């Protein structure tokens, strides 16, 4: 908690926050989970290779672990070791919305502000390993950055607008920008994102001058962009692109459901913990690099946070990304501001180095890794932090005013 001293120039005063799920809510969760029924065996759910989704065997074992061995309070304690805050953001369209964020504040006057944006089905938990590494490596006096890790609007411990206002990509990006302005970083900041967070960072790079640079660990080929000839690819890159194309044909059904029937999906999947575990657990099992899968305890923690915060039915605006692509529209991205891209080979979608350099003249940092998947910040925090620090060195000159 040594990193909780707010910068003196901060105009807004966020309120310290401690996460504590009431005992009554924990008891209700356990009772609901205990009563949640495992569906009967079928031909499809007997397969454990993931081609039809989660298996009956995995769900049965995960339910038992969730009931008997999982310790939510242990994860709460880990979260609360970091400074947690809430601050009210007054958005012109969404109205007043409380935003939760974790932070590591530096006492250095030239510290570079970073905002780390998570995606679906993730949360701020994805960035905790990186924050732990930073807090071990630095003191508040030596930390070269201000680290801001929010719950996205409609996610986790952040609030939602009125039910009469739809959360959209543009609104979410604007609220994240307003957060950084409310924290006093009007001289500039760096946006970093993966999954939905990568889209929000892209939007922020286009719409807001104060977003001086952006780093992504997921980058997609935009509508209308033409990559260079395929002979520019290495054998490994060609293989990873083929794998990504296969996934797009077999693994995108969830996004179409979210985007076209968000009411049905939100109501059905939020009806009981086991339904949520099956739906989100599928992604947390499949999307990481299978050579180093996520531990079950980590999967249960991420799903538990969704359950205790009623995140799932609120969070489905991430499916607008798929809808935008299907309509043939391009996702905004700056080709002027400094861009960094960390390519992890088993991500769902990726761009090989030759393609990125061909399409983005503003690329100042690129790193292709040999391991890591869609949740790279959670899977490979040491590699991720190395990239962030190298990127920070590349763009540090933009912040010499501090």
UniProtKB/TrEMBL annotation:
GO MF term set: epoxide hydrolase activity
Identify the keywords attached in UniProt to this record, alphabetized. Hydrolase
- Kindly state a single biological-process term from the GO annotations of this entry: epoxide metabolic process
Which InterPro entries does the entry mention? AB_hydrolase_fold, Epox_hydrolase-like, Epoxide_hydro_N, Epoxide_hydrolase
Q: Which residues form the Epoxide hydrolase N-terminal domain?
A: 15-127
Where's the active site on this chain? Answer: 195, 317, 374
What are the coiled-coil residue ranges?
A: none
Pfam families referenced in this protein's UniProt entry, alphabetically: EHN
Please state which protein family the record places this protein in.
Belongs to the peptidase S33 family.
Protein name, as recorded:
Epoxide hydrolase N-terminal domain-containing protein
